[in-house]
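Q: You know discrete backbone vocabularies at least as well as I do. I have my own habits and do not want them to colour yours. No explanation is needed for now; the record alone will do.
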Amino acid sequence: MKKASEIDDQELARSVRLGSKEGFRLLYEKYGVKIHAFSYSYLKSEHDAEELVQDVFLKIWDKRETLDETANIRSFIYKIAVNSIYDFIRRKNVERAFSDYSASTKSFSDETWQEVVFQDMVSQIEGLVLQMPEQRRQIFKLSKEQGLSNDEIAAKLSLSKRTVENQLYRATAFLKQNLVLDSTLATLVFYLFC
């Protein structure tokens, strides 16, 4: 049996695209340690780096049918890692800011209550996103959930970059107008989602 390092990336990509669990295992074997080291250099936490590696490879498996064996899979993996690191750091910063805010507010001193309030804010945003027109919702999710750039979204949806920018602006304005939150909490949530 070949080692992961002996199999070229195109062959690995083809194997994973076709749903081969062995191919996926070999891809993980080839790049898992590298992504872990890369993630650790930014996150400075063994646990967080391990969690991020799992997240990266889960996204690869979920998107396996779209893998292009002629493209550079190494770049694809690192791009997912960079976007995941960015999202992770942003989310951690918001959680820390929310925790600090909650600690300074007597009515939110209970940890369980903090979690309930935070989840309520997230649920509000998710509900509002569902009310957006289909194209706007799709663009918003590609931007905020998958971390795609405006250029990437435009290419993926066969739209102009200007249309993407316009729809993201309208999505953000809609959320700002309809969120029912304390002003400080609204700022924290906006930092996380917008």
Q: What stands out?
A: The two ends are 48 Å apart (CA to CA). The chain has nine helices and no strands. The domain at 105-194 is CATH 1.10.10.10 (Arc Repressor Mutant, subunit A).
